[in-house]
Amino acid sequence: MTDPSTASGIEARHLLPTATGRQTWAALRTELARLPLLSAVAGTLLVAASATGLVAPWVLGRLVDDVIAGTDTQQVVAWSGVIAGAAVLAGLLTAAGAAVAARLGETVLARLRERVLDRALHLPSATLERAGTGDLVARAGDDVAVVTNVIATSGPAFLGATLSVVLTALGLFALDWRLGIAGLAAAPAYALALRWYLRRSVPYYARERVATGERTQATAEALRGSATVRAYRMEDAHVARIADRSGVARDLSLEIFGLFTRFGLRINRSEFVGLAAVLLAGFLLVREDLSTVGAATTAALYFHRLFNPIGLLLFESDSVLQAGASLARLVGVTTLPDTASPDSSRPARPERPEPAALEVTVAQHRYDDGPVVLRDITLRLAPGERVALVGASGAGKSTLAGIIAGIIEPSQGSVRLRDVPLAQLGEHQLRREIALISQEVHVFAGPLADDLRLADPDATDAELTRALDLVGATGWLRTLPDGLATAVGEGGRQLTAAQAQHLALARLVLADPAVAVLDEATAEAGSAGARDLDRAAVAATEGRTTLVVAHRLSQAATADRIVVLNQGRVAEHGTHAELLAAGGGYSHLWRSWRTPDPVPPPARESTEGNRHPNVGAPGTFPDQPATTRVRG
Ligand SMILES: Nc1ncnc2c1ncn2[C@@H]1O[C@H](COP(=O)(O)OP(=O)(O)OP(=O)(O)O)[C@@H](O)[C@H]1O
């Protein structure tokens, strides 16, 4: 058998943590303790159901003894009635126990899921960025589904089977301690078989869940970035990566199945050993007149009765172990430090933070073990200053924007806001002060108003409309059938990429942060849509310290200062006029792509202006694909 760690070839170091067995049990105990009545009722019903199951074999033994003693038909009928009654009662108790246990399990899981989501939504952005949302989606989706399935189907039966095994073993001893010891002869064989299996399977299940998480992650990434994947013709590489991850998950499942079959053989061997021992002991005891035939019969029936629960434990251990691994991944999220502020309920209408200076020092940054993507960056944004970041694709603009927004931790360096390192601000304060509009704008399903209120839950309808108005979205707002109440996103009205961007900018206005970081690339340069969005962005960031990743040169021209990145370094910086006068790379770019009448600053622009002939995609950078680069 190969070592699972090498068999999977998985590196889990960037995924969210998985809880230890002890942490998982502790979390379960805490949740059960919060539901004392339901736990007690479920426990009592399951124990009663298992105990009632012992009645029939015991009565059969008595019946055998009575028949040998020459009892009358009436007594036989009476014993038969007891057997039938016990069977009906055991059935009813088992059904009720399973229903209550499932309800208990569902409640515990629902609470755990709430805690996972709560913690996940408060995760520091850098942690989430490193782990990738795919891992979180796999936990909140796949892992919860696995646990739910076990709770609803095999979990209660598993619990019942465990109790049956314990109570039947006690029943054997109650009959005759020697019969009990004979039955126990099988225990070492069972224990060895179980140990053999668990030792091998538990690490596999944990690996399998990790592998599934990585597969989901790889698929989610490829789908999310599908436009980029297609633009760079990286389909084959992504498919190969997904196939690789799926292959790892499949190989692990096959190895687990092989293990499972061999475990089944070992269990059959243990059953043979146990039943043979009980029959032999019964025979000897009866021969020596130390026991009755009836007691020996009951003992054999008791032992035979163990086959089913042990078979069920064996059969279901597969899914229960998987559920255990999934549960550990769920509990793992709850073990992350809570970064929500002590009073995480949003403070009512916080004061707008004063415009703040930002100081960025990045000696270098690399993703994991990859190449250095940023180096020797020193940048200061004065309060209220608007700085544009310019550079070819892959120059490091989005990375620097992520670092400045506090969602990426620089490998070496820091960002200070009002002289306080972002790392010391705490997630809540950080989000209050700095907002990032990335290339992935998510439109949440539901009324448009709810989507906007994510940024300010207390905003009135008038304030929402004002925010939309400020970013120039009133035009399309008027076309919505139910205005702010119109359902948007999945299942509702689909917003265009530009409308989604308006929405993001309106959220920015409502969130009202001191610092805004914009990294959107919705429209092609020179288009009316681009000018519209440029105006909207300027309006939304008015008075804030702003960093704009300029995917269009028109965005740079209106900034107070421009920083040109080239292969991760600052190549030039200065105002638009200074850079043009300097005659460096920026001026070269500008002159190459400038339209006859470049977009003037928004405040001074009077008409929509179709005076700019849209020749190719003026104002974009040389190696950017001309297709839309919106990923969300
Ligand atoms: N999550 C990541 N993991 C590994 N490498 C990354 C990651 N994100 C970006 N990179 C790499 O870092 C470098 C800089 O990328 P970045 O996205 O910051 O550049 P950019 O100038 O914003 O490009 P674009 O204009 O295409 O968005 C590139 O080589 C890119 O491949």
TrEMBL record:
Q: Which residues form the ABC transporter domain?
A: 358-592
The record, for InterPro entries, names:
AAA+_ATPase (IPR003593), ABC1_TM_dom (IPR011527), ABC1_TM_sf (IPR036640), ABC_transporter-like_ATP-bd (IPR003439), P-loop_NTPase (IPR027417), Type_1_exporter (IPR039421)
Span-the-membrane segments of this chain are 37-59, 79-105, 181-198, 270-286
Q: Which PROSITE patterns match?
A: ABC_TM1F, ABC_TRANSPORTER_2
Q: Which UniProt keywords apply?
A: ATP-binding, Cell inner membrane, Cell membrane, Membrane, Nucleotide-binding, Transmembrane, Transmembrane helix, Transport
Write out the GO MF terms. Answer: ABC-type oligopeptide transporter activity; ATP binding; ATP hydrolysis activity
Q: Where in the cell is it found?
A: Cell membrane
Which SMART domains does this chain map to?
AAA (SM00382)
Identify the stretch(es) annotated as Disordered: 593-632
What Gene3D superfamilies does the record tag this protein with?
ABC transporter type 1, transmembrane domain, P-loop containing nucleotide triphosphate hydrolases
Q: What is this protein called?
A: ATP-binding cassette subfamily C protein
